[in-house]
Design a protein that fits this description.
379 residues; alpha/beta; FAD/NAD(P)-binding domain; 5-stranded parallel sheet; 28% helix; disordered C terminus; binds flavin-adenine dinucleotide
Length: 379
């Protein structure tokens, strides 16, 4: 298993549970720890320390699983061979879940004159930048598509509003959100309307169907992809996404991402699957879909090795919790069917859903890291 993110951890947990020591699973990741994407926002606003949101891979003690902290330097999908900084490994079955990397330099001016809140380094920098900011134009903006967790820019707009209000400087600031979609969450008109209402109530300006193309640090101006300019003093950006270099070099990508069979997650190489953000499977780039895809692959591998019916196709379904600030969380149950249009069922924000989000995390920590105490949460 290449990559120990949402996809890799889910696949590994399921196969270990099914086969125990009957199979040999190598779980390879360059990092020493996992973190949930949304926890970066807690770090950015200093609600949590970085070490509190990281979960060490060394805690994975699962039968049949060996975690290797190594950087993958080449992938040969024809021969299912992986080379790392330490060794070369041959696999009977290879699953690629190496996620998406960021390329802030692809947006002129972003590195020099802006910030991004999608990488850990980015939020650590912002943790220091935010307290220095006291007035002016805040712009939350997407620079390209596709990008991870489509609700995250909307969440950031509400959370920065909260933050500035808490510091009693909200009146000295304005907030603008630049999004590539006409409405915040296109598959759910209800969620979108609720967000647009919240933006209007809090004086957050929504600019849809647009991307941020460039920043001019000297003039404090942002250029949108339609040529329009808007002023900024603090830019909170979503940088360009791309596959990790090792994946691009493997020759597996088409139009930037690994194509897979939408129903089975099989690549065009026999015995090679790909799950999650590294693919162009047709669901949004989000952990919940990476995990769902990994479940389909795990069931397929179990059926192939144990004999049995081909499992159900990847359903493209997932639950997403959306932060509204002020400790309120809403939920959308969203489906991207293989044929047909995506749709979502919306549940309005409440503190109870905030607890549900904590349980979501706790159950994954229990499954992936055997952290049993994690599910004992207050209701
Ligand atoms: C701010 C923010 C908020 C988010 N909120 C949510 C949310 O609420 N819900 C949700 O479902 N999703 C959310 N996401 C998205 C989610 O984090 C990702 O979509 C998810 O992590 C993708 O899972 P994955 O398994 O495909 O890849 P990842 O989890 O990114 O894992 C890929 C792994 O591959 C490893 N890797 C990469 N290259 C190499 C290499 N060369 N050698 C070795 N290892 C390598 C990386 O270290 C990484 O551990 C959020 C993301 C962000 C940025």
């Amino acid at each position: 298993m290449l990559g120990a993110g949402f996809g890799g951890l889910e696949l590994t947990a399921l196969l270990s549970k099914e086969f125990g020591t009957e199979i040999d699973i190598l779980l390879i990741d360059q990092s020493d720890s996992f973190f949930f994407g949304y926890s970066k926002l807690d770090v950015m606003f200093s609600h949590k320390l970085p070490e509190a949101v990281r979960f060490a891979y060394s805690n994975i003690e699962k039968p049949g699983v060996r975690f290797l902290q190594e950087t993958i330097t080449s992938i040969d999908p024809e021969n299912r061979r992986v080379t790392t900084t330490k060794d070369t490994y041959d696999a009977d079955i290879m699953v690629i879940g190496l996620g998406a990397d960021y390329d802030p330099a692809a947006t002129p001016g972003l590195v020099e004159g802006g910030n991004e809140f999608y990488s850990f380094e980015g939020v650590l920098k912002l943790r220091d930048v935010l307290p220095m900011f006291s007035k002016g134009h805040v712009v939350v903006g997407v620079t390209s598509t596709p990008f991870k967790c489509p609700p995250a820019p909307s969440e950031m707009s509400l959370l920065i509003d909260d933050y500035l209000t808490r510091r009693s400087i909200r009146n000295a600031c304005d907030i603008t959100l630049v999004m590539p979609f006409g409405v915040p969450i296109p598959p759910s008109p209800e969620m979108s309307n609720t967000l647009l209402t919240a933006f209007a109530e809090r004086g957050i300006k929504y600019i849809g169907n647009s991307l941020v193309s460039a920043l001019d640090q000297n003039r404090h101006m942002i250029t949108l992809n339609n040529g329009e300019e808007i002023p900024y003093d603090l830019f909170l950006g979503i940088p360009h996404h791309r596959v990790p270099k090792v994946v691009a070099d493997s020759g597996m990508t088409e139009n930037g991402w690994i194509p897979v069979d939408r129903r089975t997650l099989k690549t065009r190489y026999p015995g090679v699957y790909a799950v999650g953000d590294v693919t162009s499977v047709g669901t949004p780039k989000a952990g919940i879909f990476a995990e769902g895809a990994a479940r389909t692959v795990a069931r397929t591998i179990i059926a192939e090795l144990k004999g049995g019916d081909q499992p159900e196709d990847f359903d493209g379904a997932g639950i997403c919790h959306v932060e509204f600030g002020e400790n309120l969380v809403s939920r959308i149950e969203i489906v991207f069917p293989p044929d047909g249009s995506p749709y979502g069922i919306f549940t309005p924000a409440s503190e109870a859903l905030g607890n549900e989000k904590k349980e979501f995390e706790a159950h994954r920590l229990e499954r992936w890291f055997n952290m049993e105490s994690a599910v004992n949460l207050p209701k």
